[in-house]
Amino acid sequence: MAITQAGASDKVSALVYVAAFAPSEGQAANDLGKEFEPPVGMKRLRSDDTGYLSLPAEVMANDFAPDVPKAATNLMAVSQVPINSKGFDEKVAEAVELIASIPGITREQADALVHAGLTRIEDLVSAEPGDISDIPQIGESAAAILEAARAEAGRRGLLAGEAPVNS
Questions:
Q1: Do 59 and 100 belong to one domain?
Q2: pTM
Q3: Which tens digits make up the pLDDT trace of 100-115?
């Protein structure tokens, strides 16, 4: 592997490997690799009451990072950010189009929000600015984006006890 060979150079102090899902338009993350057996650690993901997934400490230590010292895997386990399980089944184009249809949210912002697991207007309504401000393309626009989403939810009758507003 070229990157591994690059690590042998005295000019390289560290290597970082990044793995991610990158579904194409019309695909969901769960569509990728479905013909293969899931990795052992993925079979042992835990879901909380709201559908957010994380790896338990023993899975982190034994399956995800078995060659890392136990103190480090414990830190990894307690500092991981749970991921919304709904995002794995959302088709990329459909979710991006939905979020981008909200006045005040750009397509680039919608794409970033969807890739962060915020695939429905309801996800944005329940979020706080601090929840999304670290997402690329969002930053200082977080409060305005959430305000736009809440206004759109009101127009669509998605807020509890409200009827849609015809405009």
A1: no
A2: 0.50
A3: 999 999 999 998 998 8
Counting Cβ atoms within 10 Å, is residue 115 exposed (0-12), middle (13-18) or buried (19+)? buried
| 114 and 72 within one domain | no
Residue 4: its pLDDT value, please? 58
Which pLDDT tens digit goes with each residue over 40-53? 878 899 999 988 89
Q: From the CA atom positions of the chain, what is the Rg in Å? A: 19
Q: Is the Cα torsion angle 1, 59, 119, 92 positive or negative in sign?
A: positive
Same domain for 81 and 101, yes or no, is no
pLDDT at 26 over 90: no
Which of 71, 89, 107 corresponds to the end of one domain?
A: 89
Alpha helices in the chain (DSSP H): 2-6, 40-43, 57-59, 70-79, 92-100, 107-115, 121-125, 129-132, 142-155
Angle between helix 107-115 and 92-100 (nearest 10): 130
| Backbone dihedral angles phi then psi of residue 54, each to the nearest 5 degrees | -155, 165
Same domain, 133 and 112: yes
Residues 84 and 97 both lie in one domain: no
Q: Is residue 35 situated within a structural domain?
A: yes
